[in-house]
Backbone:
């Protein structure tokens, strides 16, 4: 059974829902139980030049690997599941799926998550003076109800540098977030391959 993560106030997600003309309360009748979303396989991640991907099990709950930019704060109780991926070197990835009660709620949640990713660089710099962060928008993808890809680069004052690609997509009342990351900068980001991964992630949810 999927674990329910319960949080407090609706905060930014409520504002996003109101902007979309949506109320983030469950309908009077219980929503029908949807089939569990399907996750990416290891072979569908951007190819690593020297190491194969290994996929972990699909696990209930919200992944810590997304905590830097995406969280459950201000989000109603939904079904969270995730799958983590790794290589033998410095590259890792994670996919989150969130099943909401309605398509309108999923639309609001996708907007909220994308906004968190868009503003993540600013929040990192505000909370960590020793870190410089930069984000880039790699655009929308026409898959199901849509997806968007963004990049995030961070560099510490002692020289550590990391690059991540993140995407948010939606199919009906389900939202998926995919993150790829490794040591490096924007020149090391496999944007085209990650866009393909994102399209696959959204299209294979159901």
Residues:
């Amino acid at each position: 059974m999927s674990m329910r993560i319960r949080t407090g106030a609706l905060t930014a997600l409520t504002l996003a829902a109101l902007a979309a003309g949506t109320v983030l309360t469950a309908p009077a009748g219980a929503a029908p139980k949807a089939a569990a979303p399907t996750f990416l396989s290891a072979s569908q991640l951007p190819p690593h030049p020297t190491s194969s991907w290994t996929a972990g099990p699909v696990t209930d709950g919200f992944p810590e690997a997304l905590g830097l930019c995406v969280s459950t704060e201000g989000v109603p109780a939904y079904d969270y599941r995730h799958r983590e991926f790794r290589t033998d070197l410095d590259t890792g990835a994670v996919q989150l799926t969130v099943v909401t009660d309605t398509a309108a709620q999923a639309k609001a949640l996708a907007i909220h998550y994308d906004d968190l990713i868009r503003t993540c660089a600013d929040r990192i710099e505000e909370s960590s003076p020793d870190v410089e962060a930069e984000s880039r928008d790699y655009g929308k993808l026409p898959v199901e109800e849509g997806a968007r890809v963004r990049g995030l680069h961070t560099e510490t004052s002692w020289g550590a540098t990391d690059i991540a690609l993140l995407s948010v997509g939606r199919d009906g009342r389900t939202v998926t977030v995919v993150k790829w990351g490794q040591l490096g900068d924007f020149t090391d980001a496999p944007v085209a391959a990650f866009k393909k991964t994102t399209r696959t992630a959204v299209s294979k949810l159901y």
About this structure: The CA atoms of residues 17 and 23 lie 6 Å apart. The radius of gyration is 17 Å. Strands lie at 4-5, 54-55, 59-60, 78-86, 92-99, 131-141, 147-156, 161-171, 174-183.
